[in-house]
Specification:
The chain has about 325 residues and is α/β, with parallel strands linked by helices. It has two domains: about 160 residues, NAD(P)-binding Rossmann-like Domain (Rossmann fold), CATH 3.40.50; about 110 residues, no CATH class. The chain is built from ten helices and 13 strands. It has a seven-stranded parallel beta sheet with strand order 3-2-1-4-5-6-11, sandwiched between helices. The chain has a two-stranded parallel sheet with strand order 7-10. Helix 6 packs across helix 9. It is globular and about 70 Å long.
Length: about 325
């Protein structure tokens, strides 16, 4: 199997390349050579170029499939898919469940036939919190227009595991491992939904082998893992003395604790469907999820290799957490 990976040296792209190499695939990377440029030195071919006007380096080549791990702007995805239409059999586009508008996430069970978000001005290319999802939806449409019937749109949820720089999952196992009292939101039964990057990578390669196309929600099994599961499993693995103080949403709102970033995995009560997305289609087509304990253990092992002065991108700072816990205890003791 010959694969072209656009990107390929960061997180999901890295996991895909690692999995493909174990299968003996022939890999070509196309990227700007800026992130981990020597990661696969001597193992894979790397074509250096910018997808914005620099696709010519791909001319005259052919692969079984291309995996686009870093498409955010429809114009650039269209250019890539158009140029590769006669060079590959299949275009795998890494999309996101964010293609669905927030109002669709007010109910659980959101499936692939749910309408995607739109933009009034489809020429906008600035990627931000409001445009990210609709732009991903337009990217899907652009790839399909260039290669009708040959596009696999991977609508991933929260991707976690080793080499995740977002800290949106890593915060919890790491914080639990530090021990002591933790401020945690809602209740132990609060549903969470995420996928280990390695499971996602293996499923993508499986879908390429089967030449499957179409739209797929790809994250964890809805309702299978709670926030309580993440915390207690993290404590079991780390052996820490962590205790959990469950704090209600009104208190967190009153003290301007933000969902998702200050307290990862938690999105509050306004979007109950966000962590209950229907992925039955992907599971029916071979998606397999490794045990939660394995993901947590490997995440902690990787986290231990990071610099001690790493600046966390998500989660409460310890002094902020301590202050909130004191206010919570003062309030509940009145």
């Amino acid at each position: 199997m010959k694969l072209l990976v656009i990107g390929g040296t960061r997180f999901l792209g890295r996991a895909i390349v690692d999995a493909a190499l174990t299968k003996g695939y022939e890999i070509t990377l196309f990227n700007r050579g800026q992130s981990n440029p020597s990661l696969y030195s001597g193992q894979v071919e790397t074509l250096v170029g910018d997808r914005d006007g620099g696709l010519a380096v791909l001319n005259g080549r052919s692969w079984d499939a291309v995996i686009d791990t870093c498409g955010y702007v429809p114009r650039l995805v269209r250019d890539s898919a158009t140029l590769l239409a006669d060079a590959v059999k299949q275009y795998v586009f890494i999309s996101s469940i964010s293609v669905y508008p927030f109002e669709s996430m007010r109910e659980p069970g959101l499936a692939e036939d749910t309408a995607v978000g739109t933009m009034k001005d489809e020429t906008v290319e600035e990627v931000n919190g409001e445009t990210y999802g609709p732009l991903k939806a337009l990217c899907e449409r652009a790839a399909e227009a260039a290669m009708p019937g040959r596009v696999l749109n991977v609508r991933a949820g929260l991707i976690v595991g080793p080499h995740d720089q977002s800290d949106r999952f890593t915060y919890w196992p790491h914080r639990v491992a530090q021990g002591g009292e933790l401020l945690v939101p809602d209740s132990p039964d609060y549903p969470t939904q995420f996928i280990d990057v390695r499971d996602l990578a293996l499923w993508i390669l499986h879908m390429i082998e089967q030449q499957k196309c179409g739209d797929y929600n790809v994250t964890g099994q809805a309702g299978a893992v709670t926030l309580g599961d993440v915390l207690t499993t993290s404590r079991d693995i780390s052996g820490s003395d962590a205790t959990f103080t469950w704090v209600d949403e009104p208190f967190l709102t009153e003290h301007e604790v933000s969902t998702w970033t200050d307290l990862p995995l938690w999105v509050g009560s306004e979007l109950p469907g966000f962590n209950l997305v229907n992925c039955d289609k992907a599971f029916a087509d071979g998606l397999a999820i490794r045990p939660l304990a394995e993901t947590i253990r490997d995440t902690l092992t990787w986290q231990a290799t990071r610099p001690t002065d790493h600046e966390w991108r998500a989660g409460l700072k310890r002094e902020q957490e301590a202050e909130l816990l004191q206010k919570w205890h003062n309030r509940t003791s009145e």
